[in-house]
From TrEMBL:
Keyword presence, Cell cycle: no
GO molecular function, one term: catalytic activity
Cofactors demanded by this protein: [4Fe-4S] cluster
Keyword Nucleotidyltransferase on entry: no
UniProt-recorded name of the protein: Radical SAM protein
Keywords from the UniProt entry: Coiled coil, Iron, Iron-sulfur, Metal-binding, S-adenosyl-L-methionine
Domain Radical SAM core as annotated: residue spans: 62-157
Chain segments annotated as coiled-coil in the UniProt record: 308-335
């Protein structure tokens, strides 16, 4: 049951249950009583029958592509960002707020980068997430190269039942103080996930088209092990490959593949998020090498930063040219519509 379930229940439905069905006369007068708690749970069950609540099991939010590493095989394409900018707190929060407004609860929100510990405003973002009634648990994903600051750890310690750390292992050469940093988190009483050394990574491959049939795309989507719903650039995507592939101009896709959180009203946003979970596949499945045959690569191979910058700059220029072309097309369409309207008015 979401910790905010009382906020999801209408006064009318509560009153109906209290006075007509549940027969618990004093529940509304004493909200802290056992009767009241029972009442709200009964009403929540009734609401679920009338309209199933929109509960999101897991969602990631990328707060910035800035990273301390430059992994050649990064599945999220962080190595292709040209001059990545630090987190804009209010911008990132506007994405998260729009998403949370449209759902009933998110069981786990994973804060990612890049490397999130690079961001000076991370404690404030965490404070907002931990205080939000619709967020059940918040987890920070870090590569273990940076020391978590005391202000962040103190905040998380005060809310330790609702938050945790996930430390990815990249080896002692890239993260020499890994054990020191995990122990520091543990001393603050925080839950820390630190899987054993990665022996291999999934090889997602490049973004070229695999020319898959609808049947093959559906099978690849159903068998995909990455249940990684992802928020980036004001959009809610099925996975990071879709989100960052679109942003970088590596993958073209229809708008039905994602939810533009900042341009839709709340009701439409909610419906689009719900229907996204019913899609048989997405376009990114045709540009991914993960399925149906899984291949592996050695983990955390570092790419040459100079080469990454050159490629990133090319992608940035292509993205800018594409955006300018889209704006020009919109202007032309607007002029055409105005011209047609003027012609019709003239005939009248």
């Amino acid at each position: 049951m979401p910790k905010n379930y009382e906020q999801l229940i209408s006064h009318e439905l509560t009153t109906e249950y209290c006075l007509q069905r549940a027969k618990v006369q004093h529940a509304l007068d004493n909200p802290n009583s056992a009767e009241s708690n029972l009442l709200y749970r009964m009403v929540a069950e009734e609401m679920a029958r009338r309209e199933p609540p929109l509960l999101i099991p897991y969602v990631e939010i990328c707060i910035s592509p800035q990273c301390t590493l430059n992994c050649r095989d990064c599945a999220n394409f962080m190595q292709y960002y040209y001059k990545p900018q630090p987190m804009n707190l209010e911008q990132v929060w506007s994405w998260m707020d729009a998403f949370l407004e449209a759902i009933d609860a998110a069981l786990t929100v994973r804060v990612m980068g890049g490397e999130p510990l690079m961001q000076k405003q991370l404690p404030e973002l965490m404070r907002r997430l931990l205080a939000h009634p619709k967020v059940q648990h918040t987890q920070i994903v870090t590569n273990g190269t940076l020391e978590p600051k005391d202000d962040l750890l103190n905040l998380m310690q005060a809310n330790r039942q609702y938050c945790s750390f996930f430390f990815s292992r990249y080896g002692s050469k890239l993260a020499p103080r890994f054990d020191e940093f995990t122990q520091k988190c543990l001393r603050h009483g925080l839950m820390v996930q630190a899987p054993e050394d990665n022996k291999q990574w999934f090889d997602m491959g490049d973004t070229s088209s695999r020319h898959r049939s609808v049947k093959e795309l559906t099978e690849a989507y159903q068998k995909c092990p990455n249940n990684c719903r992802h928020i980036w650039n004001g959009e809610f995507h099925h996975c990071p490959r879709s989100a960052h592939g679109k942003y970088l101009g590596l993958i073209d896709m229809p708008e039905t593949d994602y939810v533009p959180l900042m341009t839709l009203d709340t009701a439409t946003r909610r419906e689009r998020i719900r229907t996204m979970y019913d899609l048989p596949y997405i376009t990114a499945c045709n540009h991914c090498g993960l399925m149906p045959e899984t291949h592996y690569v050695p983990p955390a191979i570092q790419a040459d930063r100079a080469q990454s910058r050159v490629l990133g700059e090319k992608l940035a220029k292509m993205r800018e040219e594409k955006q300018q072309l889209q704006l020009r097309l919109q202007e032309l369409q607007s002029c055409t519509c105005k011209s047609s309207f003027t012609t019709v008015e003239g005939k009248r």
